[in-house]
From TrEMBL:
Example of a GO biological process term: proteolysis
GO molecular function, one term: metallopeptidase activity
InterPro entries xref list: Peptidase_M6-like_domain
Chain coiled-coil ranges: none
Keywords (A to Z) from UniProt: Hydrolase, Metalloprotease, Protease, Signal
Signal peptide: 1-22
Domain of life: Bacteria
Organism of provenance: Prevotella lacticifex
Positions of the Peptidase M6-like domain: 147-382
The protein's name in its UniProt record: Metalloprotease
Origin organism lineage: Bacteria, Pseudomonadati, Bacteroidota, Bacteroidia, Bacteroidales
């Protein structure tokens, strides 16, 4: 088995967590004055905030959304003004919006999270961080074989399970391998398969986790005791474990004998705070680690939590949650980092993009309401030791099938940067079938990884900082995050633009002249004659020189400060950090 190195972070007092991305699709919410307002929720459990469709910062207070005031330290506070959409906004409200210092808020958010673009390696010692070597973390959940995880169903004094038989429903939700899930009246069969089936497919049968479901148990506190906008896992996890202690032998969940329970996962009654419009009393899905006490001689350390029901609390149809959130958080417990930018800045600078729906660890957890989460990328499967990705070295005609297909063609390949260690261009065939059935596009997906596959650290956040380290190279030259489409009332334009990411794609792009790497240097390894024939993708690797891939870059009008390389790679917004060369700004070639 391939050994993967992960960062070991000791949490002596604090609880560290890694949360799911907010579902940033627009939501229409009622205001206390009877008006309706379209809002977007951005960020994650660590930093989250609301905006209107035209970018006004909001603070949710009770059942209302108020114009935010940016305080001297950059944090947000609710004003006394109830927010309205652009067409209904008064002069006082408009003026207060103009006074919002979004740059200060972005700086505050990033500083609060301690983010940088240099992938700091830290260890917590009495609250002080210091650099340390990345090492093997035996407390991570195993990612080979059939290890067992303990899943506790939890409800509260004021919030109980809607599902009539939650244990049966979540046993299928977690352990189904084949699909055809029994519908018990709350959309259980809308999930393509269970979580076990997802990871069996991702690992080609090498990883089939077993989830032992216990409960439900009712805790002696209301939901807000554990949530209320400041989730308290130091209360929830010990209380859940204590509630099942008499019926569960925790010593059966230490597969490697290191003294730690491999994983305790709590599924709680009700909805998620990560959905726009839901109560701040709700808990935000997350995973992490801390010292939660000892049960049956084993330390409870690594945990995950997510919700029972899908979508908005106001929905009349109460449906079981999609498995995407669980798959995302469960992947954290095995060591994978978030691929989206977790700092506050990207929502306003629009200069830091990741993989969006193309990756489970970005927005792929929400595809088709999380019921068809995006399949692992070839890079992620390589990291987990589930597959080898072929390296292209010589001139070749390459035919790619999808990763999960059977046949003689290659499943994925990469172009390694000979000048920089741990940097490569990955090429992967995406088709609308299986787990990727509901993705917005198909064809050749090309993405750059400037991040060591053998030193993955679940706390890295590789796409924070001024430039992303894992990023799609779009065929149409149009990079975008869902935050770019805040002024749209529906996600249709976002989906349409994502459909242009793959090759040949909606723009019929059949070649890539060169690739701009993280440093800004060009990797002169052209691929030509990109074709899609049925479910196969083919191209010619290396060949004669071809013109630059783009002459201009299409971006949303409000992102006018973004800088692109000649082949469409986003380089950020800071000219001072770029090497000398020719770049595209506002559709014009600029020499720096």
């Amino acid at each position: 088995m391939k050994k993967i190195l992960f960062l070991l972070i000791f949490a002596l007092v604090a609880t560290s967590s890694f949360a799911s991305k907010a579902n940033s699709l627009p939501a229409v919410v009622p205001q206390p004055d009877g008006t309706m307002l379209t809002v977007l929720l951005q960020g994650d459990e660590n930093i989250s905030w609301y905006t209107t469709t035209d970018g006004m910062l909001l603070v949710k207070r009770g059942n209302g959304y108020y114009v935010a005031q940016v305080k001297a330290d950059g944090s947000l506070a609710a004003s006394s003004l109830l927010a309205h959409g652009p067409a209904m906004r008064g002069t006082e409200e408009t003026n207060m919006m103009l006074l919002q210092d979004k740059a200060k808020f972005a700086k505050y958010s990033s500083k609060l999270l301690g983010q940088s673009g240099e992938l700091p390696v830290t260890e917590w010692t009495n609250g002080v961080t210091r650099k340390m070597k990345i090492r093997d973390d035996s407390t991570l959940f195993p990612h080979m074989g059939s290890p067992k995880a303990l899943v506790i169903l939890v409800e509260f004094t004021d919030t109980t399970f809607t599902l009539p038989d939650p244990k049966a429903s979540f046993n299928d939700y977690l352990n189904n391998e084949t699909g055809n899930i029994v519908d018990r009246g709350h959309g259980e069969n809308r999930n393509a398969k269970g979580v076990k089936g997802y990871f069996k497919d991702m690992s080609f049968g090498q990883f089939t986790p077993q989830f032992d479901v216990v409960g439900p148990v009712k805790l002696s506190h209301p939901l807000r005791y554990y949530g209320a906008g400041n989730d308290n896992m130091s209360r929830l996890i010990p209380d859940a474990c204590s509630a099942v202690n008499d019926s569960v032998d925790f010593s059966q969940y230490d597969s490697n004998g290191d003294g730690y329970v491999d994983l305790v996962y709590v599924i709680y009654a009700g909805h998620s705070e990560s959905e726009a419009g839901n109560s701040t009393d709700d808990i935000w899905p997350k995973s992490g680690y801390s010292d939660f006490g000892t049960f049956d001689g084993k330390k409870v350390y690594r945990y995950g939590v997510n919700n029972e029901l899908n979508g908005r609390e106001t929905s009349k149809n109460k449906l079981i949650n999609g498995i995407g959130l669980f798959c995302h958080e469960f992947s954290h417990t095995m060591g994978l980092p978030d691929i989206y930018a977790t700092s506050g800045a990207p929502g306003y600078n629009k200069d830091n993009f990741g993989m969006e729906f193309w990756d489970l660890m970005d927005g792929g957890e929400y595809v088709h309401s999380g019921r068809f989460p995006t399949a692992y990328t070839s890079w992620e499967r390589e990291v987990m030791g589930w597959m080898n990705v072929d390296t292209l070295t010589d001139t070749a005609h390459v035919v790619l099938r999808t990763i999960d297909s059977k046949g003689d063609s290659a499943r994925s390949c990469k172009i390694v940067n000979p000048s920089v260690k741990n940097e490569a261009i990955y090429l992967q065939n995406i088709q609308n079938k299986g787990w990727n059935y509901y993705l917005p596009g198909h064809g050749l997906l090309v993405y750059r990884v400037s991040y060591a596959s053998d030193d993955v650290n679940f706390a890295d956040n590789p796409n924070n900082g001024s430039r992303p380290r894992i990023v799609c190279i779009p065929a149409d030259g149009k990079l975008g995050a869902i935050a770019d489409y805040a002024d749209d009332s529906t996600p249709d334009n976002y989906y349409a633009d994502m459909a242009g990411d793959t090759y040949p794609g909606t723009s019929n792009v059949s070649s890539i002249a060169s690739f701009t790497m993280y440093s800004g240097d060009a990797l002169d390894r052209p691929i030509l004659n990109i074709k899609e024939d049925g479910t196969l993708v083919s191209f010619d690797y290396l060949g004669k020189k071809i013109p630059s891939a783009i002459n201009s870059v299409m971006v949303k009008d409000k992102a006018t400060d973004r800088i692109f390389s000649l082949n469409g790679m986003l380089m950020g917004t800071d000219k001072t950090r770029l090497p000398k060369g020719i770049y595209i700004i506002n559709g014009k070639k600029i020499v720096l």
